[in-house]
Amino acid sequence: MIPEGLVETHADGSIDLIGGYSPTSGQFHFPRLDTCPYSGATDVERVVLSRDATVWAWTAVTAAPPGYEGPVPYGFGIVELTQERLRIVTRLREADPQQLAFGQPVQLVADPLPNGIVTWAFA
Hints:
0% helix
């Protein structure tokens, strides 16, 4: 189960990541916290983060973690959200590391898992 408040799901099946922005620090963060992780300020605003990103680091997960029943291998890495310049750890739809490159553009997508849970990934 994905914790409440991480994503917004829409009727068309698309999703948005929900983050935080602190005017005091001028920084975005994900997931949203009540206190800014950069400055400790409590002026955090809820924001919908951009869907466009670039690949920053990547690998393939080739052994299923405990409790995971989905397909392996799957892509895993860090993307940098284009608008916010915020790096987040995420699933990647591409499982072959040879098909990914630093700076490659990707977009946020809904990623259904075999157990019926819909999470996010970048493709």
